[in-house]
Specification:
The protein is α+β, with helices and mostly antiparallel strands and 298 residues long. The chain has helices spanning 2-49, 57-88, 97-110, 112-126, 201-217, 255-272, and strands spanning 135-140, 147-154, 158-162, 168-172, 176-181, 186-196, 230-237, 241-250, 291-296. Among the domains are: 2-91; 186-296, Alpha-Beta Plaits, CATH 3.30.70. It has a five-stranded antiparallel beta sheet with strand order 4-3-2-1-5. Strands 7-8-6-9 form a four-stranded antiparallel beta sheet, covered by helices on one side.
């Protein structure tokens, strides 16, 4: 009966402490995660309930920083709990320093990618390369088509995007080699209008200028535009057609919406003048036919 008595005594003493430590760590981690969600929800609520059409850069950074701090604190809580549990089990923590060093070196060689992901994530956050809600285009190691979408989550290890098709794309931060932020400070909608070479280019320019004035005066579209759309003139020449370019500076992330609206207005204006706009070629690659969206810098 002595072993049973010893077991019951251990369970009533250190065993109970271990259970309490585990419960406390789980509850504390959930409290931290709940607090982080409350903070991010508060940041998002200020945007949705306010008059702002786009998130401010400071709000994006605060949202991403809150996510990173929450993730780091949860990991730290569980790591500290493990050390306390080992101490209650009678495992000498100080005696694990040397083996842990050797194990750390081994893991360092085996987990270089994870370390690289964490370091890359740290610089992404501190340098404010992008944040929650940004529309980005990310190129990863190995080439291939870049991932484009809206940033939904940024941690020290991964970046999670939501594509235009609703797909969730998860990218390790250490594999990112190029980031194009399409919603930083301001953006530009570029509308290339193909017209036959037989059409008077001056007439086309006049029509596009009129479309720009009407769009800028439209109460629904005016808040998205930073200034009146301008006509750049002939951008390229072909055997049967020329491309006349029209550009508009917009609020960050609104270039796709403005580009689609401008193109629809151009088609209607051309039809009223008895002109036809040829369909865009298959090489066009953008959020809308004939629209190329680029970011601008102040």
């Amino acid at each position: 009966m002595q072993p049973l008595d010893d077991l019951l005594q251990w369970l009533a003493g250190r065993g109970l402490e271990i259970v309490l430590i585990i419960l406390a760590s789980v509850l504390l981690a959930r409290l931290v995660a709940w607090t982080g969600r409350k903070i991010t929800d508060s940041i998002d609520r200020r945007y949705t309930d306010g008059d702002a059409l786009v998130r401010s850069e400071a709000a994006k950074h605060r949202h991403s920083l809150t996510q990173v701090i929450t993730w780091t604190l949860v990991v730290l809580i569980y790591a500290v709990a493990v050390f306390f549990v080992l101490d209650r089990l009678g495992v000498p923590v100080t005696g694990l320093v040397a083996p842990a060093t050797v194990l750390g070196v081994g893991l360092g060689f085996g987990a270089q990618r994870i370390v690289g992901d964490v370091l890359a994530g740290f610089f992404i956050i501190t340098e404010r390369q992008y944040g929650f809600g940004d529309v980005v285009e990310i190129q990863v190691v190995g080439g291939g088509d870049p991932a484009r979408g809206t940033v939904e989550d940024v941690t020290l290890r991964i970046t999670r995007l939501r594509s235009a098709d609703g797909e969730v794309v998860t990218l390790p931060n250490g594999q990112i080699v190029k980031v194009v932020n399409l919603s930083r400070d301001w953006a530009r909608a570029v509308v290339d209008v193909p017209v036959p070479t037989s059409v008077d280019v001056n007439q086309v320019n006049d029509i596009l200028r009129a479309v720009g004035r009407e769009a800028y005066a439209d109460p629904a579209l005016h808040p998205l535009l930073l200034d009146e759309p301008s006509v750049m003139g002939v951008e390229s020449l072909g055997l049967d057609e020329v491309n006349v370019r029209m550009v508009a500076r917009t609020l960050p992330g609104k270039q796709f919406e403005v580009g689609r609206d401008l193109r629809a207005r151009v088609v209607l204006a051309f039809r009223r003048q008895g002109l036809n706009v040829p369909p865009p070629s298959a090489a066009d690659d953008g959020p809308a036919p004939g629209v190329v969206a680029t970011r601008g810098e102040q």
